[in-house]
Amino acid sequence: MNRSMEGEGEERLVRIGAGGVTLEGNLSLPKGASGIVLFAHGSGSSRHSPRNRYVARLLNQANLATLLVDLLTSDEETIDLRTGHLRFDIELLAERLISVTDWLTQQRDTRRLRIGYFGASTGAGAALVAAAERPDVVGAVVSRGGRPDLAGAALARVRAPTLLIVGGNDRRVLELNRVARLRMPCPSEIDVVPGATHLFEEPGTLEEVARLATEWFDRKLQT
């Protein structure tokens, strides 16, 4: 599947082998991209999430490539909808994110691009674990309403500059982010979006997330 997006390059469907399964993703590669952002979706989300696609579109407009990939197969998603267990299997999600990262480093169109991670909810925990495992290729991490605490001991090994974006009304997650940040030796910041809850559904809040993420990646992924 190829779909032209004016000013944003071309979006195409990619299939990536990861630990015995095949993952599907949507790759958008603007001409002359200065970096690529790999999205790690959170609880019950997918690469078709309107929120993530909105952020990806603005990143594309800022000349950053994006890859939105489902870290669970369709069969696994069906199981997870019933049990909710796989979305919290941080080790599994991180292993697959690492496989996708390695795939990007091997493709002609993306192998020279510095990689960033955009993690949401539980996907942020997986992104930080993967960043700790691939310090030489992951140049930046952004967490949106994420659970960095789920990265556990890997937090102490994260080197990539990390931005934690949290809604001001998402108090429990905000506290978890503050505690997790204390365990991270990398350059890091917390940006609190006033009036926002966990999903950033309030007017203007997702736009602020996209602005903050774009500025962070633009600064950190310059090649």
Fold and architecture overview:
- By secondary structure, the protein is of the alpha/beta class.
- The chain has a single domain, classed as Alpha/Beta hydrolase fold, catalytic domain (Rossmann fold).
- It has six helices and nine strands.
- The chain has helices at residues 50-61, 74-83, 90-106, 122-133, 171-182, 205-220, and strands at 2-5, 9-18, 21-29, 36-40, 65-69, 115-120, 138-144, 162-167, 188-193.
- The protein has a nine-stranded mixed sheet, sandwiched between helices.
- Helix 5 (171-182) links the parallel strand 8 (162-167) and strand 9 (188-193).
- Helix 1 (50-61) packs across helix 6 and helix 3 (90-106) packs across helix 4 (122-133).
- The longest helix is centred in the middle third of the chain and has 17 residues, at 90-106.
- The model is unreliable at 1-7 (pLDDT under 50).
Q: Report the major sheet.
A: 9 strands, mixed
Unreliable runs:
1-7
Please give the order of strands in the largest beta sheet: 1-2-3-5-4-6-7-8-9
Number of DSSP E strands: 9
- Count of all domains: 1
Mean pLDDT: 90
Element-by-element helix/strand order: EEEEHEHHEHEEHEH
Q: What oligomeric state is this?
A: single chain
How many individual helices?
6
Rg, Cα atoms, Å: 16 Å
| CATH architectural arrangement | 3-Layer(aba) Sandwich
CATH class placement? Alpha Beta
Structural class by secondary-structure content: alpha/beta
* CATH topology-level name: Rossmann fold
Shape: globular
Distance between the termini: 29 Å
Helix content: 25-40%
**CATH superfamily annotation:** Alpha/Beta hydrolase fold, catalytic domain
**Residue share in β-strands:** 25-35%
